[in-house]
Amino acid sequence: MVTLFSTHCSSSSGAVASNSSIGFYNYHNNLAISSRKFGSQKISLQINQTSICNAVRMQDGAVAAPLSKIENETPLKKLKDGILSVTPPKEQKDTFDFDNNKDKSTVSITVVGASGDLAKKKIFPALFALYYEGCLPEHFTIFGYARSKMTDAELRNMVSKTLTCRIDKRENCGEKMEQFLERCFYHSGQYNSQENFAELDKKLKEHEAGRFSNRLFYLSIPPNIFINAVRCASLSASSAYGWTRVIVEKPFGRDSETSAALTGALKQYLKEDQIFRIDHYLGKELVENLSVLRFSNLIFEPLWSRQYIRNVQFIFSEDFGTEGRGGYFDHYGIIRDIMQNHLLQILALFAMETPVSLDAEDIRNEKVKVLRSMRPLQLDDVVVGQYKSYTKGGATYPGYTDDKTVPKDSLTPTFAAAALFIDNARWDGVPFLMKAGKALHTRSAEIRVQFRHVPGNLYNKNFGSDLDQATNELVIRVQPDEAIYLKINNKVPGLGIRLDASNLNLLYSARYSKEIPDAYERLLLDAIEGERRLFIRSDELDAAWSLFTPVLKELEQKKIVPENYPYGSRGPIGAHYLAARYKVRWGDLA
């Protein structure tokens, strides 16, 4: 039997071993153990004849628990003594109990691109929140790495301006911040310099102080320098004995070809289980609650199919434009930026079959099955738009091409709507509609499940000819004001028979007093603990790009002109015609 160990949110938690562990740990002075940097399978050991080595480097990188003499011992006695059998590599789980060796282990977190907006606004605040909640290991160090010249004190000053304490836990806030900042350090260097990363490695070792070291690198940098940073980190700054993991931010390429090239380049220096492709929407509370809502409530699972569901809508809208940052966006557009990753990942979680377990691979296997069952997106099922300037109340809002960082003749869509289909027994014929846009009338992200009409409804005459008014609808509002509500038909109190559409509403802020953690907090903690279910596997990425790449190429090759829509409006009229073609009305416009 293999024991899986994970950390908990307490200040005494130790670091965690996982099947991405690298190298060996020398538990006894009389053992000379050599190891290679990660990515290598060749190993060498020197042990004396009277001892059995206490750590075994598995083919997939896992570290097995210490072994002792096993002659003439029964399986039960072995289990009682804490001896773990070694399983084949594919089945190997985290086995080394760091809780008993917490004084010997540490986690070093390096934020590569520490001077950027993402690091300042999201990553460092998330790490502080984890520290504030007692979720980080007892021994940890945080390093910022970037090209900017900066001292440790200057980094701490920069980071301190973005830190906040929990609304429901303000005690000792200042003291906690000081303690956290004392563990933050900075090293300036180039992203393509092995020498600079070797200097970082030297500093990391000084702070690790001889403890069993695990290292996490967060690549908060543009994708064109991912490979250089990974190469230098792997060759010059990986952990010699513990695990080394790398978090990679989207975009993961622009199409199937560039994505495959990026994955192939990363795998020259990393194994798949060391790569954590982050999509922060998967860390949002309501997205993670999807499987709980469906699989732990009997009333929903029997309804989750084509028999009862008429259509499903995934809606994302922002009430602001590119605001002077159109250079990056113009290279990718709304389909690559939002639909191919955020919305498609949520769709896969929504539509997947019941996984064998909550294990990461079981969940990701089911998501891949959904993606592989989907039809490639056709141009006829896509509407693209681009916002234009609009004046309202004396204020003028600039159009997309008015942004100085955007070419005047840009055809990059800032809005897109699409109809997708899953060709399997559960979802055959059900339209899955996506809509995403910038500079719209509101900021929101939600999932809308519209159920079929009640056959032979006795109260149809009360709704007139518009039966959509009588349709039950389940709404999962991801942001803002997280909520789950179910639209039902109800009798209005009184002597007559008058029906009303009412909501059974679970508003999170009213039901739960605890502040909802930021998505980056959950995902960073999962990466530290080696939990991969909310991260994207390479075959998931391949399947996702295969759906969107053909239509993206067609849009660009045919130079399809996006339909204009005013800044602050509900989007182009073409989106309504697309929905109407499948006898659907967008739920957010009702």
Automatic annotation (TrEMBL):
Its EC number is 1.1.1.49. Keywords: Carbohydrate metabolism, Disulfide bond, Glucose metabolism, NADP, Oxidoreductase. GO terms for cellular component: chloroplast stroma. GO terms for biological process: glucose metabolic process; pentose-phosphate shunt, oxidative branch. Coiled coil: none annotated. The keyword Manganese does not apply. The keyword Oxidoreductase applies. Pfam families: G6PD_C (PF02781), G6PD_N (PF00479). One of its GO terms (molecular function) is glucose-6-phosphate dehydrogenase activity. Pathway: Carbohydrate degradation; pentose phosphate pathway; D-ribulose 5-phosphate from D-glucose 6-phosphate (oxidative stage): step 1/3. It catalyses: D-glucose 6-phosphate + NADP(+) = 6-phospho-D-glucono-1,5-lactone + NADPH + H(+). It is an enzyme of class 1 (oxidoreductase). Residues 111-289 form the Glucose-6-phosphate dehydrogenase NAD-binding domain. Belongs to the glucose-6-phosphate dehydrogenase family. Catalyzes the rate-limiting step of the oxidative pentose-phosphate pathway, which represents a route for the dissimilation of carbohydrates besides glycolysis. The main function of this enzyme is to provide reducing power (NADPH) and pentose phosphates for fatty acid and nucleic acid synthesis which are involved in membrane synthesis and cell division. PANTHER family: GLUCOSE-6-PHOSPHATE 1-DEHYDROGENASE 2, CHLOROPLASTIC (PTHR23429:SF11), GLUCOSE-6-PHOSPHATE 1-DEHYDROGENASE G6PD (PTHR23429). This is Glucose-6-phosphate 1-dehydrogenase. The lineage of its organism: Eukaryota, Viridiplantae, Streptophyta, Embryophyta, Tracheophyta.
